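Lab notebook, page 48
Experiment: co-folding of the full assembly
Goal: obtain a model of how the components sit together before planning crosslinking
Operator: M.T.
Materials (sequences as entered):
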Amino acid sequence: VSGTDLAYLSAHEAGRLLRSREISPVELVRACLARIEALNSRLNAFVTVTADQALEAARQAEAELLKGEQRGPLQGIPLAVKDIFATRGVRTTSGSRIFADWIPEYDAAAVERLRAAGALIVGKTNTHEFAFGATTINPHYGPTRNPWDERRVAGGSSGGSAVALAAGMASLALGSDTGGSIRLPAAVTGTIGLKPTYGLVSRHGVMPLSWSQDHVGPMARTVQDAALALTVLAGHDERDPASARRPFSDFSADLDLGVGGLRLGLLKEQFELPTDPDVLLQVREATAALERHGAHIEEVSYAEHAHAMAAGSLILFSEAASVHARWIRERPADYGGDVRVRLQQGSLVPAAWYLRAQRARRLLVHRFNHLFSRVDAVLSPAVPVPPFRQDEPVVNIGGISLDARGALLRNTRLYNLLGLPAISVPCGLTRAGLPAGLQVAAPAFKEAIALRVARAVELAFPPRYPIA
Amino acid sequence: MTISRPNPQLVRQLAAAVDLPLEPGAAEELAPQLGQLVEFAELLESLDLAAVEPAWAFSLDAVEP
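Observation: model returned without errors.
Model output:
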């Protein structure tokens, strides 16, 4: 097996080969580190590489496996961690100057769980500053570049994690998602991003942005890997006040049940907004494939879509301004220009607007959940445009000019407000050879349905990688 | 003070009221951005929330079906 083939193994397959001792954790970690060494200066996926610690942990995993000691389903699997998750003894910057030198004494809950299951951290990945933006063009640590075309954005804010997967630098990655920050970088890099139900995965030890819309979730190269990681990540944690007390089972269990008999709704409002024709073509091909496999496809409408966007924005800006209230007053020059303006904007939102948005949210959630009496899951383009050039402020779709950065988040933000699980799965390439993603959203705590639909899409559009 | 159509002067007044320092030129940049949030707030005014209990924060009971 070549180094590149090793680095691109799925976590599931790598785990099987590790347990059967056909490959060793040291070989696997070395393959990922070699890719990081070769590519990170170009792609800037990682801000910190923990090569020595990863190799040491790999040697330990190798010794355990040789003795037949099983630590967990991710034993020996290389993991990339977004740099807003606290990592014990490893610098955690949140993509900021303010936390440039912070070395936590503890692991975030998600990191704890993945480590306990045997995962080995190869490094910390670049993020939009404080996760407050969609491009991962970071003023302090540089831009992360899209491996499909290095002039283009990688999406964000978990752009480094997505690129680490697309470029074969890690087998799994951790991301966070407040408006689409897991799903949109996944969509524009041809990888998988899953935002779970609000409360399913603990956010303890993760830099907050908008606490009532922040989610933590897995990023992967295959749907099966996303399910595998979610099964490890999910569960109650009293350190996160929003953490749910719900029983759950193995999220991989239903993956291959197929979509026969499932009712899938195409969300009218998101399909009707301007969408790049090549992206739309790929999404239509994906929905046609689902129909061929026995799903019933119909259109569904959410008349309050614009209201939900409005409420989500008011909540995001207000909560972010609250999180940053002290620093934006005492150290405004330490922020990059785009994030500083967003925080100043949020600082001027009256409390009455915020409270109205939270109150409206209950109604908006109730109305959307009503759709699930008709369909099992709701589909839309994950991102309405292909990844654009880093210096491109505006994208043009059929003569309509859109703010490029706003367009990235347009279809994902809804599910942060609603708290519902949503996954982005690749559905082929545009004519220009750039990835497109389909978004699948499901009822609360029904991640298994979203994963099952995503798996069917994956079978129709097998994973493709940009750099050999 | 009410916020209708924010202009740079209003932005500077609001920022002063909440002790928010603004760098030169920031008020001009912020005015249209704040204007977008005004539009969002106005849009939410059109929802009939009479039957919705006030929510002080978002909680799981709002998510779960």
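Interpretation: Chain A has a mean pLDDT of 96.
Next step: discuss with group before ordering constructs.
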